[in-house]
Automatic annotation (TrEMBL):
It comes from Yoonia maricola. Residues 16-147 form the Activator of Hsp90 ATPase homologue 1/2-like C-terminal domain. This is Uncharacterized protein YndB with AHSA1/START domain. It holds the Pfam family AHSA1. The lineage of its organism: Bacteria, Pseudomonadati, Pseudomonadota, Alphaproteobacteria, Rhodobacterales. Belongs to the AHA1 family.
Amino acid sequence: MPLDTKSFDLHRTLPLSPAKLWELMTDAHHREKWGGPDDQTVLVVDVADVRVGGEDRHRCGPAEAPEFEVTTRWYDLTAPERAVFTETLIFGGEAVCTSLVTYNLEAAGKGTRLGVTVAVSSFSGPETLGEFQNGWDGGLTNLENYAQSVAQPT
């Protein structure tokens, strides 16, 4: 079976400084608040080791059974402007896909322009590529909403 690959870029402008947005994107407590692709999906961080060479492990899926496992390896953490890491998505003990992800944060007035570049290889067929991109897009929409609530606490 041929290897299916795809690259995509996502962009958002968020109402937080680069330093505050960096915190939301790298701190496990915050990632659990926005990291799922939709409001039906939870993200549970089991291990957080956010440092160059560190490895994170988390699970995502429905609250009653977050059965997708993700292993993240951090390669570059240039706070608060850039992070580079890989993610491997595992389901049922099998790797489904692996991606290389780059975050770029740039000050934009009182906020931050965020660029996310993802290059993904699917080991389970081409349909995984679209699902993976939709998951990232949904996660960034959740991040937008979460950043909005952090910027304007009630």
